[in-house]
């Protein structure tokens, strides 16, 4: 909106507005810019302090329909309306808003700010524990990392109280009795919009009700809110789509998310690139790239990231006497198979596949890349085997390519590498634990540990695979770091943590939190850890791999990579097995079945992913899976 000086209406302009069936109890309370044309204001009732811009733009809509900017058939109270705005058919009224240039608003019930509002900032989301205790206070720039700290670091009350004070300052800065509809926003065919702040170039089309929230759209990353959406006490971040009857209550939705097709959520957090359709979430902490598509899927009282929920997968937190206080954690990369079930509390290790129904409150956090399989009501663990599957590697490679964030300001700093210090310290723990189990539970074919059963053959295979994974990782990091000329330092050599997408040294994170003076400073410093990741990772890997000659570490890593790639390719071969040709070549001969299959699916050696693995082996590369 330009800074042109507003002036009082002239007598001629008042006369024309009156002739256009406009009314106002005191025309002196209506001011306009030079260039204002009263002919484009018709059937409007004004009250309060109103300021109007100029109306020169002609909007061209789909199908070639043209509509001239102006205000038609509306009640406007206490509003500032910018240049080239189109407002028409407001069934009730628009009150207490600044409407910026080039906005298009048509066929809306009511747009109002009632009293002072923080527009969703300051809403408490009872994530994980529905009874409270781990509430996260949301605000416009909330990152997955700060939310993780806020939810899980309750054992640091001074830190949480300090963050509370910083958020309260932010809330006060964003509290007003006047709402804003940003430049170029489009609002049509919608119901009640109450205490809503709307960013630039947002599109709200057919929404039923939006109350107490912010739609943080931007020119580079517009937000779309579609038909039949209801949202109460919410924040929607840039680049996000919420549509097709989705329902949100006390939710934060991060950047470039999609929530649609009737999905309903309450007291939940969704961070970058999440995609949810059809199902339901309650008290969910959905870190980056959490995905659920199916109608019968429920995610309740849990935290995931880089997760995919199969159809019918669900959990329960109802084994309680004092309320739904139990919750569960699935570390990054967990997959829930169709019809899987977990009774909370439980803790599932990274990149694990969960199949069947699990009631034993297992803790497999030290066993990444595992299968959790139900057999006769018992949970069996097959350690490490999921690393050698084509699906895990393919997922790790696709995530960076599926980052849909286009805003200049990214809220979440995301570590994409499949192998990293956080995962590999778990691998080291797993090897030690499995060896201890084998030594202490001698003479058994099935071992017990933390609510799971482990077959002897699975344990031995797990140790072998975990050692190959470590060799691969140390070789990759050593080769890369040698080329970059990194010098070994102590920084980063201690434990690493996964702050819901950001993997970084725990000591470095604590240092940032101990010196936190602003919310922006915390997020900026955490983001710097991602930038510094390469040399910090080298320090950790060098410390753990010991005083072995670097070239020996590199060569051993290449050998491990070759062996693991062979396993992955062998797993990929299953997709081209004859039993998967069922349904191909209908009405043809057996030869036609093979031809039809190859036409649709190609061959193993033609598959781009397989060719990439084969190329890295043939050229002696030791490429880190990104």
What's the SSE blueprint?
Elements: E1 6-8, H1 11-19, E2 23-24, E3 30-33, E4 41-47, E5 50-52, E6 58-60, E7 66-68, E8 70-77, E9 80-81, E10 86-95, E11 97-99, E12 104-112, E13 124-125, E14 136-137, H2 144-152, H3 157-173, E15 179-181, E16 186-198, E17 203-205, E18 209-215, E19 224-225, E20 230-236, E21 241-242, E22 247-253, E23 258-260, E24 264-270, E25 275-277, E26 280-286, E27 291-292, E28 298-304, E29 308-309, E30 314-316, E31 328-330, E32 335-336, E33 341-343, E34 346-348, E35 353-355, E36 357-358, E37 371-375, E38 378-382, H4 390-401, H5 421-440, E39 446-449, E40 452-455, H6 456-484, E41 496-499, E42 502-505, H7 506-514, H8 519-531, H9 533-545, H10 550-573, H11 590-601, H12 608-618
Helix pairs in contact: 5-6, 6-9, 6-10, 7-8, 10-12
The percent range for strand residues is 25-35%
Largest sheet: 25 strands, mixed
Question: Radius of gyration in whole Å, from Cα?
Answer: 29 Å
Number of helices: 12
Looking at the structure, what is the overall shape? elongated
Distance between the termini: 44 Å
Calculate the mean pLDDT score and round it.
91
Q: How many DSSP E strands?
A: 42
Which regions are unreliable across 5 or more consecutive residues at pLDDT < 50? none
What structural class do the secondary elements suggest?
A: alpha/beta
Helical proportion, percent range? 25-40%
Describe this structure in words.
With 626 residues, the chain is an alpha/beta fold. Among the domains are: 1-112, no CATH class; 551-618. 28% of the residues lie in helices and 29% in strands. The strands form seven sheets. It has a 25-stranded mixed β-sheet that branches. A six-stranded mixed β-sheet has the order 1-3-5-9-11-15, with no helix packed on it. Strand 41 (496-499) and strand 42 (502-505) form a beta hairpin. Helix 6 (456-484) packs across helix 9 (533-545), helix 6 packs across helix 10 and helix 7 runs antiparallel to helix 8 (519-531). It starts with 5 loop residues before the first strand and ends in an 8-residue tail after the last helix.
């Amino acid at each position: 909106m330009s800074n042109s000086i507003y002036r009082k209406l002239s007598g001629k302009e008042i006369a024309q507005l009156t002739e256009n069936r406009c009314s106002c109890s005191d025309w002196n309370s209506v001011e306009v810019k030079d260039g204002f044309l009263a002919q484009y204001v018709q059937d409007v009732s004004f009250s309060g302090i109103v300021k109007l811009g100029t109306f020169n733009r002609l909007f061209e809509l789909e199908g070639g329909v043209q509509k001239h900017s102006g205000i038609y058939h509306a009640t406007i109270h206490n509003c500032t309306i910018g240049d080239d705005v189109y407002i028409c058919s407001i069934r009730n009224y628009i009150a207490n808003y600044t409407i910026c240039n080039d906005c298009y608003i048509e066929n809306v019930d009511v747009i109002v700010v009632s009293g002072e509002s923080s527009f969703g900032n300051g809403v408490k989301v009872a994530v994980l524990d529905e009874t409270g205790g781990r509430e996260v206070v949301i605000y416009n720039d909330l990152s997955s990392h700060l939310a993780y700290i806020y939810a899980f670091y309750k054992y640091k009350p001074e830190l949480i109280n300090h963050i509370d004070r910083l958020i309260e300052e932010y809330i006060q800065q964003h509290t007003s009795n006047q709402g804003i509809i940003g430049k170029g926003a489009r609002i049509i065919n919608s119901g009640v919009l109450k205490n809503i702040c709307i960013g630039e170039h947002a599109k709200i089309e057919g929404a039923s009700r939006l109350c107490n929230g912010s739609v943080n759209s931007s020119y580079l990353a517009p937000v779309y809110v579609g038909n039949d959406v209801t949202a109460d006490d919410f924040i929607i971040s840039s680049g996000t789509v919420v549509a097709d009857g989705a329902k949100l209550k006390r939710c934060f939705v991060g950047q470039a998310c999609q929530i649609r097709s009737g999905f309903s959520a309450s007291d939940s957090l969704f961070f970058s690139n999440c995609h949810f359709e059809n199902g339901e979430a309650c008290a969910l902490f959905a870190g980056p790239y959490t995905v659920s598509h199916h109608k019968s899927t429920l995610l309740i009282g849990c935290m995931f990231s880089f997760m995919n929920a199969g159809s019918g997968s669900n959990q329960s937190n109802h084994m309680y006497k004092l309320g739904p206080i139990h919750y569960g954690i699935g570390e990054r990369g967990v997959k829930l198979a169709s019809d899987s079930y977990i009774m909370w509390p439980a803790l599932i290790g990274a990149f694990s596949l969960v199949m069947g129904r699990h009631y034993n409150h297992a803790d497999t956090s030290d066993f990444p890349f595992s299968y959790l399989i139900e057999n006769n009501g018992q949970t069996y663990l097959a350690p490490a085997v999921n690393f050698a599957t084509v699906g895990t590697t393919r997922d790790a490679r696709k995530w960076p390519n599926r980052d849909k964030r286009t805003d200049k300001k990214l809220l979440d700093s995301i570590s994409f590498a499949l192998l990293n210090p956080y995962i590999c310290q778990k691998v080291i723990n797993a090897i030690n634990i499995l060896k201890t189990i084998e030594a202490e539970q001698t003479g058994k074919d099935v071992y017990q540990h933390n609510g799971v059963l482990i077959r002897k053959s699975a344990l031995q295979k797990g140790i072998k695979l975990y050692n190959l994974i470590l060799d691969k990782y140390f070789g990759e990091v050593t080769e890369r770091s040698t080329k970059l000329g990194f010098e070994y330092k102590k920084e980063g050599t201690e434990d690493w943590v996964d702050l819901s997408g950001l993997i970084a040294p725990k000591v470095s994170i604590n240092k940032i939190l101990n010196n936190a003076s602003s919310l922006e400073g915390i997020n900026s410093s955490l983001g710097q850890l991602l930038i510094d990741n390469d040399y910090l990772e080298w320090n950790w890997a060098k410390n753990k791999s010991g005083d072995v000659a670097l070239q020996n570490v590199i060569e051993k890593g290449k050998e491990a990579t070759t062996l693991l790639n062979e396993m992955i390719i062998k797993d990929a071969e299953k997709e081209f097995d004859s039993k998967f040709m069922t349904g191909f070549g209908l009405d043809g001969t057996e030869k036609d079945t093979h031809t039809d299959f190859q036409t649709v699916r190609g061959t193993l050696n033609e598959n781009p992913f397989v060719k990439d693995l084969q190329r890295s082996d043939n050229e002696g590369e030791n490429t880190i899976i990104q």
